[in-house]
Helix-turn-helix domain-containing protein (Epilithonimonas ginsengisoli), 288 residues
Amino acid sequence: MIHFDNIKEYNRFIGYNDPKKDLIDVVKYNDCKSIRLLCDGLTSDFYMMAFKRNMTDLSWFGNTEYDTTSAFLYFIKPKQIHNWNVDKRWEGYQILISPILLQEYNIDFSFFQYNIKEALFLTNDEQNRIENLYEQIFEEYQKDNYDMALLLAYCNLIFTYIGKCYKRQFETRQPLYNKLVTEFKKLLSDYYSNGQQGMPNVHYFSDKLHLSSNYFGDLIKFNTGKTPSEIIQDKIISEAKKHLEISNKTVAEIGYDLGFDYPTYFTRFFKKQTGITPTKYRENKASR
């Protein structure tokens, strides 16, 4: 596995032109004379946002359902493995940017942490708008006296629009995502009955569904109105109430069974969610 800690070496390996700055580069693929068509795997210390006009890279996305066959956009986060094997060079644009620069300009979006297979497949109208925005960023970057603040403002604008496009994709793929929501709730329902140890968490379920935690969280929130954490918390409270009502175990024992390391954590969590302590809840049920 090859790792790159600077943009210049990364670009030279793939066949892109040298960057003008150390922390950011804007690439127009058609301006590059020779692009590497095969790579077994590499990682870098940078974020990459790639817009590709032709669909030469579909093998990267496995069994993904495509909303279009015209263009797509995807993200690669630092340390994420990136490999490809294509027959012809791609067209479009790429932004490679250091996390340091994003932090300095306070730019952060949930989709920065999506996996490459969680790409955005663009409609024709979205493709035109995205391409125009990339072209504006590229033109500014080519200036000898380009303004970094303006360049990052353009980046922030395109990221905001990408977020809107992802919401559209969540909506148009609702039948598919409804199945994922159903599967998530089934996995959650089975969690305690299958004897799982510890508290259920978002990463456990996103991993089971082969999704990044951020993509999983965004699609669950879009389709249910609640975050996965909120749904998990509701399930824990439901399980806790059931045990408090029908079990002879102590509150501490129930807390341990639900995955809490300490009884006080369970009591604090239960009271925060319901307004009363587990002991008081049990007493109220017993008095009825």
The beta strands are 2-4, 24-28, 38-44, 47-52, 71-76, 82-85, 92-97, 120-122. The mean pLDDT is 91. The chain is about 50% helix and 15% strand.
